[in-house]
Design a protein that fits this description.
Layout: H1 3-21, E1 24-25, H2 26-33, H3 37-49, E2 53-55, E3 69-72, E4 81-87, E5 91-97, E6 103-110, H4 119-133, E7 140-147, E8 150-152, E9 176-180, E10 185-188, H5 190-198, E11 202-206, H6 207-218, E12 226-232, E13 236-242, E14 245-246, H7 277-281, H8 283-292, H9 301-309, H10 313-337, E15 341-346, H11 347-351, H12 353-366, E16 376-377, H13 385-400
Parallel strand pairs: 4-7, 7-11, 12-15, 15-16
Antiparallel strand pairs: 1-3, 2-3, 4-5, 5-6, 8-9, 9-10, 12-13, 13-14
Helix pairs in contact: 1-2, 1-3, 2-3, 4-5, 6-13, 9-10, 10-12
Length: about 400
């Protein structure tokens, strides 16, 4: 690379090094990332000027000439923030996070009618209100939005789209929800709509890929080698990453595992087959079964999890059944990809280790790929996984090219 491309790559290297090791002095950055001291000095000057880094008071370590430590600018005064929007079926969740992906503020917006033609405008209006109420004067970089279904990632006019393998980032068709069955959205230019309503840069991606990006950026180090992320909600999705890159595939259609067969399941699916993952283990299927069994009055997974937590054995039994189904599906993905880590976002196992153990045991009983069942883990952010991952849709491109949003 030459010219601006090399400068952008060097800036990204410095920023990622500070993310991983900060606070760290300039001399320490050079030793950690392999750039020359002169290159590190140039890039840190630019990153400080852009407000992405800050100098801390006092020497980093040692004696003699002071070595001023640098860290990401997460300060309450001047530290930039990113907004996150996760659009689910029952509700949307708004968030603000700092440059380390730490949650600063959060709010939920229940959907009265998920298929309402005016839902997008309502979400934008509520998000604008949240941003106004949460404003502390810190620079707002923009909005990252994540949702299920088939999404072509990116934003209007090149606004910070993630560049996964096998698919283009920004450009024609970027930031578009190609298909979201539960919301009734087809070919919807969501990034452009939100950007127009909010007056901010907006980037959109599928929520399974968003969580994978967040794990690579802020989570366990093994995730940067290779990971599979399995998302179990009203929409069932997956994402696959290797060497720090999340795969998109042609048309950004990778990750559709709704009709992955679940060994042992005979649940009828709308596709005409039986045993599909969506029909077996989705929140929609689980909620309907919980109502059918008389466990809860409404098809709500959080309500079901609460019932199990308060000692209802029927709720606990149903959640364990779902966990074992998820584990059997996970075993198939483990055999295909054999990743260093598999992240499973499934609400009961995010909140309670006992259900995660059920997933691990069911996967271990079926998988042929070698590996410790302990590599099946919940998302590093725990219950805040979706608000944080949504904001990472915006932050991810920033760490790959700090000039993209500054």
């Amino acid at each position: 690379m030459a010219g601006d491309s090399r400068a952008a790559a060097n800036a990204a290297t410095v920023l990622r090094t500070v993310l991983d090791h900060g606070p760290v002095a300039r001399s320490g950055i050079a030793g950690l990332c392999g750039l020359s001291p002169a290159a590190v000095s140039r890039q840190t000057t630019g990153l400080l000027r852009a407000g992405l880094l800050r100098e801390l008071s006092g020497p980093a370590d040692g004696v003699g000439r002071p070595r001023i430590p640098l860290d990401l600018n997460t300060g309450a005064v001047g530290g930039p923030v990113a907004a996150g929007l996760h659009i689910g079926v029952p509700q949307s969740t708004f968030s603000l996070v700092d440059l380390r992906g730490r949650l600063l503020a959060r709010r939920s917006f229940p959907h009265r009618d998920p298929r309402s033609p005016g839902l997008g405008r309502d979400i934008a209006a509520q998000l604008a209100r949240f941003l106004s109420d949460s404003d502390t004067g810190r620079p707002l970089l923009g909005v990252g939005a994540a949702l299920g279904g088939w999404v072509r990632p990116g934003g209007p006019d090149g606004a910070g789209g993630p560049d996964g393998a096998g698919g283009a980032a920004d450009g024609p068709g970027a930031g578009v929800v190609v298909r979201h069955e539960a919301l009734g959205w087809r070919d919807r230019p969501l990034a452009a709509e939100l950007s127009r309503e909010l007056g901010l840069p907006v980037s959109v991606d599928n929520h399974a890929r968003a969580v994978a990006h967040a794990e690579i950026l802020f989570g366990r180090p093994e995730a940067r080698r290779s990971l599979v992320h399995l998302f179990i909600g009203n929409v069932v999705d997956a994402a696959f990453g290797i060497e720090g890159t999340v795969h998109q595939g042609p048309g950004a259609a990778a990750g559709d595992v709704a009709h992955l067969p679940v060994p042992g399941s005979d649940a009828p699916c709308a596709c005409g087959r039986t045993g599909c993952l969506q029909a077996t283990a989705s929140d929609t299927a689980l909620g309907a079964e919980a109502v059918r069994r008389g466990i809860v009055p409404d098809p709500s997974v959080p309500m079901l999890v609460d019932a199990a937590a308060t000692g209802d054995p029927r709720a606990d039994r149903l959640l364990r059944e779902r966990a074992r189904s998820v584990g059997r599906a996970a075993a198939l993905l483990l055999d295909v990809f054999n990743p260093a880590v598999m992240v499973v976002t499934e609400w009961s196992s995010v909140l309670h280790d006992g259900y995660l153990d059920e997933i691990r045991e069911a996967a271990a009983a079926l998988a042929r790929a070698p590996g410790d069942p302990g590599r099946i883990v919940p998302p590093h952010a725990g219950p805040a996984v979706l608000p944080g991952a949504a904001a990472t849709v915006l932050l991810g491109p920033l760490f790959r090219d700090p000039s993209s949003l500054t």
